[in-house]
């Protein structure tokens, strides 16, 4: 098990959009938490209303589901990954293009899971698919950037400094492995693995399209 906690990749632009997305997700989650704490049935109704349910396709739910989360671990993990890797992608795309890229990654992720299991009645929530797209773009653009990770090996915790292509490539392999294990077995359980896979691949495949111009970004400093 590993957990990235920072990178040494300098940013050029202040990540207004990245931080705004994080704040918005936190506000929505705290609202969910408040509602669920006072009325669990209403909390479940919120998930059903604004989460994306594959067998009840609603395009608007694709967007709203990206700002909802299923628990503290879910939102903390997602927002931490976005905090670490989002600022550098925002720097090379600019604020508006980054926002568009983030949203389209989320849409691509959700649609990937939908095509894998369109009959599912379980609501999908979370920013994981959109963030997976950010991770894919980061791996492509900054493969040698050094990422600091905490690695748990049996009962020991150690700190490692690993190239981004290794950390994020390994992350993708975990998603792929779990997704393939679920095909024909339990594609509706727990984690929407194929949303992660779809978002990651979309991020890799489209980052250069979204990056129609580049800021003066000295990537050599990140190696």
Write the layout of secondary structure elements.
Elements: E1 2-7, H1 16-38, H2 40-50, H3 59-65, H4 72-93, H5 95-116, H6 128-141, E2 146-153, E3 156-163, H7 164-182, H8 193-210
Antiparallel strand pairs: 1-2, 2-3
Helix pairs in contact: 1-2, 1-4, 4-5, 4-6, 5-6, 5-8, 6-7, 6-8, 7-8
Straight-line N-to-C gap: 25 Å
Class based on secondary structure composition and strand pairing: mainly alpha
**CATH homologous group name:** Rhomboid-like
User: What is the name of the CATH architecture?
Assistant: Up-down Bundle
What strand line-up does the widest sheet have? 1-2-3
Mean pLDDT: 83
Q: Over the alpha carbons, how many angstroms does the gyration radius reach?
A: 17 Å
Largest sheet: 3 strands, antiparallel
CATH topology: Rhomboid-like fold
Strand content: 5-15%
Which runs of at least 5 residues are low in confidence (pLDDT < 50)?
A: 183-189, 217-223
Count of DSSP-assigned helices:
8
Task: Count the beta strands.
Answer: 3
N-to-C SSE string, H for helix and E for strand: EHHHHHHEEHH
CATH class: Mainly Alpha
Characterization of the model:
With 223 residues, this protein is mostly helical. The chain has one domain (2-211): Rhomboid-like (Rhomboid-like fold), CATH 1.20.1540.10. 61% of the residues lie in helices and 10% in strands. It has a 3-stranded antiparallel beta sheet with strand order 1-2-3. Strand 2 (146-153) and strand 3 form a beta hairpin.
Q: Top keywords for this entry?
A:
223 residues; mainly alpha; Rhomboid-like fold; three-stranded antiparallel β-sheet; 8 helices; 61% helix; disordered C terminus
């Amino acid at each position: 098990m590993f957990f990235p906690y920072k990178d040494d990749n300098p940013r050029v632009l202040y990540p207004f959009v990245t931080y705004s997305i994080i704040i918005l997700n936190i506000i929505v989650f705290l609202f969910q938490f408040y509602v669920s704490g006072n009325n669990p049935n209403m909390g479940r109704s919120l998930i059903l209303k604004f989460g994306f349910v594959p067998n009840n396709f609603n395009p608007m739910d694709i967007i709203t589901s990206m700002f909802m989360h299923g628990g503290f671990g879910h939102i903390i993990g997602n927002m931490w990954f976005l905090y670490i890797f989002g600022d550098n992608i925002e720097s090379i795309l600019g604020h508006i293009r980054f926002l568009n890229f983030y949203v389209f990654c989320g849409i691509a992720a959700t649609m990937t899971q939908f095509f894998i299991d369109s009959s599912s009645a379980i609501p999908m929530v979370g920013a994981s698919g959109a963030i997976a797209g950010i991770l894919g773009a980061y791996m492509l653009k900054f493969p040698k950037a050094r990422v600091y990770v905490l690695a748990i090996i049996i009962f020991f915790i150690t700190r490692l400094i690993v190239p981004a292509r290794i950390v994020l490539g390994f992350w993708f392999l975990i998603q792929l492995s779990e997704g393939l294990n679920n095909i024909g077995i339990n594609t509706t359980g727990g984690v929407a693995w194929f949303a992660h896979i779809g978002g990651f691949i979309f991020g890799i495949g489209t980052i250069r399209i979204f990056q129609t111009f580049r800021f003066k970004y000295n990537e050599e400093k990140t190696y």
